[in-house]
Amino acid sequence: MPDREGAVPTDVPDFDVVIVGAGAAGLSLAHHLCAPGGRTPLSIALVGAPPGPLSPPRRTWCFWERGAGPYDGSLTASWSRLRVRTADGSAVTARLPELRYKMLRSDDFETLVGRRLAGSRGLRRTTATVESVRDLPGGGAEVLGRDAAGERVRLRGRHVFDSRPPRLLPPARTTLLQHFSGWFVRTERPVFDPAVPDLMDFRTPRPARGLSFGYVLPIDARTALVEYTEFSPAPLDADAYRQALDHYTREVLRLGPFEVTAREHGAIPMTDGRFPRRAGRSVYRIGTAGGATRPSTGYTFAAVQRQSRAIAAALRAGRPLRVPAAHSRRSRAMDAVMLRALDTGRIDGSDFFGRLFRGVPAERLLTFLDGGSRWYEDLLIGVRTPVAPMLRTVAELPFTPRRPALPLPPPPSGPEESRS
Ligand SMILES: Cc1cc2nc3c(=O)[nH]c(=O)nc-3n(C[C@H](O)[C@H](O)[C@H](O)COP(=O)(O)OP(=O)(O)OC[C@H]3O[C@@H](n4cnc5c(N)ncnc54)[C@H](O)[C@@H]3O)c2cc1C
Known about the structure:
By secondary structure, the protein is an alpha/beta fold. The chain has helices at 24-33, 106-118, 238-252, 301-316, 329-343, 349-359, 362-369, 375-382, 387-396, and strands at 14-20, 44-48, 60-66, 75-79, 81-85, 91-95, 99-105, 123-127, 129-135, 141-146, 152-162, 175-187, 198-201, 211-220, 223-232, 258-271, 283-285, 418-419. Among the domains are: 14-58 and 105-166 and 275-316, FAD/NAD(P)-binding domain (3-Layer(bba) Sandwich), CATH 3.50.50.60; 329-399. The protein is built from nine helices and 18 strands. A hairpin with a 5-residue loop joins strand 9 and strand 10. Helix 1 (24-33) runs parallel beside helix 2 and helix 1 runs parallel beside helix 4. It is globular and about 60 Å long. It starts with 13 loop residues before the first strand and ends with a strand. Bound molecules: flavin-adenine dinucleotide.
């Protein structure tokens, strides 16, 4: 069938499902759709970007879940304890009797999912830069793009799930970024306790707006991912991250001599803007693009799993599709208050998170962050926060306009490895 430019498209197949983007959300959905069993055999196309600027560099995902999970075979590490350190250096170490905090690197995840997809007869993988996704008049939707040779690619699906990251963030009352830079370090001396990661270490200088903290994921006594993170309106330049990491690793953690074996950078939106899950009758947004990022924390991976499982369960059972919200209204409302209180400087990040981890059992807090708590448990968490500034923010929010937000900034680039 000729396309609008008169050329014959390279491909016009029909699929039950077309997935655009092979990152956390696209691969997770494909993984769940291709699980063994299922009543309805599905034909699936997974479209990944060619190597280049649209393919994100290797990254590390952490998430928590109860007991064993589908990706356990590929984890770099997992822990049943977590630590938060306040600005004055006091530490709260929390035990997780039932949950595990898990660390998964994106290349290990890709290998694991790739193995399942390779054995799945209904799945076809395509590499293309997708340029548009739109509903078709007769039902279903069409994905148009170009392959690495510049040839047009056209795929039609009964349902299309689009995970391309948004270029612009939605209008919001508060938009912050969780931006960070991390080093995988190998130290000369054994300096890490591999049993306890530091979720938030507030012994970092407080930025003019928002908050900053260190994050340490120990893999063994001499190896860890050490990150410097800010929740603030704009990312830093590469030199400022390097200085912040230098200070944190040398002055705060006192690691002694170490080698940097790899680096990781990122900027995750923290916003009370609304990400529509639907982009057409047959087009759904998934992942960060579909609102899976929890506004108050930036954690996304677990919500992506919940959503992918729900979508796959409906389609594989031949049931009508309803894509569930990644986070409940109540969670998003509470997060909007927290983000605003933080951005206006009414609450101090170290004090806020220190109080929460001291006053609330860690598992209850993590369950709340995954949207699994009841309203009265949320209330109990609410009273552990600085109540007066939070209530003032609650009163102000309905009168605060939603302003257009800026584009998501690209991460700073830098050499992959070095000696320090
Ligand atoms: C460095 C980093 C670390 C993070 N760590 C955590 C963490 O520890 N825990 C957590 O819960 N969350 C974390 N996040 C947040 C979130 O989980 C990730 O951003 C996650 O990758 C989001 O998944 P996604 O599928 O929405 O986006 P992505 O994983 O970025 O996938 C989008 C895909 O779309 C593809 N694409 C883009 N444009 C096109 C196009 N035109 N055509 C075809 N394909 C295209 C890209 O190649 C990419 O594969 C982290 C984010 C970053 C950046």
